[in-house]
């Protein structure tokens, strides 16, 4: 369940970042309220995930998914630039997130076996 909470928290993180960009320096009420709600939702679900996951793994995965999601949607919604170097960097981030998930699973399997 912790990984589901972490995925939900990551969605809130992406919404938070994109809404912050749309606030125009917090002069737009709707995006500003969405930013605050998304920040609260992200932190709440992250805290639920961290009840089980190590903070280093949970926080890193949360920010990694949030970063990649923000870049993908920022490119689509705000027409931000994308190049091969950015794409490569994001592939590396995704690899790191998957590696942390596998390492966490392996560590828990080792604990229950021993």
Question: How would you describe the overall organization of this protein?
Answer:
There is one protein chain. With 114 residues, this protein is an all-alpha fold. It has one domain (2-113). 83% of the residues lie in helices and 0% in strands. It contains four helices and no strands. Helix 3 runs antiparallel to helix 4 (84-113). It is flat, with a radius of gyration of 16 Å. The chain starts with a helix and ends with a helix. The model has no long low-confidence stretch (mean pLDDT 91). The chain crosses the membrane at residues 33-50, 57-78, 84-103. Keywords: Cell membrane, Membrane, Transmembrane, Transmembrane helix, Transport. Its main location: membrane. It is found in: Cell membrane. It holds the Pfam family Multi_Drug_Res.
Termini separation comes to 23 Å
Q: Using only CA atoms, what is the Rg?
A: 16 Å
Q: How would you classify the helix and strand content by structural class?
A: mainly alpha
What is the multimeric organization of the chains shown?
single chain
**Low-confidence runs of at least 5 consecutive residues:** none
Shape designation: flat
Total count of helical runs of at least 4 residues: 4
Number of strands: 0
Topology order in helix (H) and strand (E) letters: HHHH
How many structural domains does the protein architecture include? 1
**Beta fraction of the residues?**
under 5%
Task: Report helical residue fraction.
Answer: over 70%
Mind summarizing the main beta sheet? none
How much is the average pLDDT? 91
């Amino acid at each position: 369940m912790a990984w589901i909470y972490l995925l939900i928290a990551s969605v809130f993180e992406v919404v938070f970042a994109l809404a912050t960009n749309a606030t125009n320096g917090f002069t737009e009420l709707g995006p500003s309220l969405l930013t605050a709600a998304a920040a609260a939702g992200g932190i709440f679900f992250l805290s639920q995930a961290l009840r089980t996951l190590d903070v280093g793994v949970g926080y890193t995965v949360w920010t990694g998914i949030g970063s990649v999601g923000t870049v993908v949607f920022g490119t689509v919604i705000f027409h931000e630039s994308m190049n091969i170097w950015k794409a490569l960097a994001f592939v590396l981030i995704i690899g790191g997130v998957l590696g942390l998930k596998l390492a966490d699973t392996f560590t828990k399997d080792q604990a229950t076996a021993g």
